[in-house]
Specification:
275 residues; alpha/beta; TIM Barrel; 2 domains; five-stranded parallel beta sheet; two-stranded parallel ribbon; 12 helices
């Protein structure tokens, strides 16, 4: 609802923007946020062709039902649903959209203990297209520290993060996670966090501080050296496989199996490179 911050949105190099009605909006401003977000769905030109996702309040909150009904009425195509606790809740949300003639893609934020326990059922609910691991609210509900000094306390969330990622992959869903650091101006820690997230297997990150976007983009954009190596991995493994080998040793002495081969293929596909 801050016009000064909204004016900066077009210049942020993000792939997807969050049109939020939940955590970033004070109770007294909820109705105004709902009007602004539904207005963006009606006329998305503000985002200049880039995708944006609408986050309503949870359906059981004082504002959630009105948020969801309003988004259904304007046929919002992409929803980020917070604080889910059961698949039944997701079915209820999706039914509101269906009654309005809409079938949005729903990305569910995994940020409650109940969601972690019931994740397979939630992933199978109608309309669910992705899972976003949200440690902020989960830390409040479990009593687990969110940070260890300046760093995200990843050990405390290992089970929930692993289950989120594994469940998403098992159901063919996108798997993303939020990045949290103690010092918003510590770009090095943001870079380390993004790299850990990428290595863990998450395909993207949600950020709350716009200056972090270029840092994460840098981490998630393959370097020319990485692409060159991936091309060599694919090329040399293909040659070895033609000779009946299940593993090959590259010219630099490193070994490649089907796992590294497929990883290299995926990297090249994401970058739009044909090996």
């Amino acid at each position: 609802m801050d016009d000064r911050k909204w004016s900066k949105v077009p210049g942020i190099p993000a792939d997807v923007f969050l049109a939020d009605m939940e955590d970033s909006v004070a109770p007294a401003l909820k109705e105004g946020a709902r009007e602004r977000v539904t207005g963006l769905v009606r006329d998305p030109s503000f985002f200049e062709g880039r995708e944006f996702i609408c986050r309503p309040n949870n359906i059981f909150s004082p504002w959630g039902l009105a948020d969801i009904e309003a988004l259904a009425a304007v046929q919002a195509p992409f929803i980020l649903y917070p604080k889910a606790r059961s698949a039944g809740e997701l079915r209820e949300v999706f039914a509101i959209f269906e009654r309005a003639g809409s079938r949005p893609e729903i990305q569910v934020i995994v940020e409650t203990p109940e969601a972690v326990l019931r994740l397979e059922e939630i992933a199978a609910a109608p309309g669910v297209g992705g899972l976003l691991f949200g440690p902020g609210d989960l830390s409040l509900e479990t009593g687990t520290d969110l940070l260890d000094g300046d760093t995200f306390f990843s050990d405390g969330f290992l089970y929930a993060r692993t289950k989120t990622l594994t469940t998403a992959r098992a159901f063919g869903l996108e798997a993303t996670e939020g990045i949290f650091v103690a010092n918003l101006k510590d770009a090095d820690e943001v870079r380390r966090s993004a790299l850990r997230s990428k290595k863990f297997g998450f395909s993207g990150n949600m950020l709350i501080y716009p200056p972090h976007v270029p840092v994460v983009n840098e981490v998630r954009t393959p370097s020319p050296e990485q692409l060159e190596r991936a091309e060599r991995v694919v090329r040399e493994y293909d040659l070895g496989r033609a000779e009946g080998k299940n593993a090959v040793t590259m010219q630099d002495g490193t070994w490649v199996t089907i796992h590294q081969y497929r990883g290299a293929q995926e990297l090249l596909a994401q970058a739009g490179v044909t090996a």
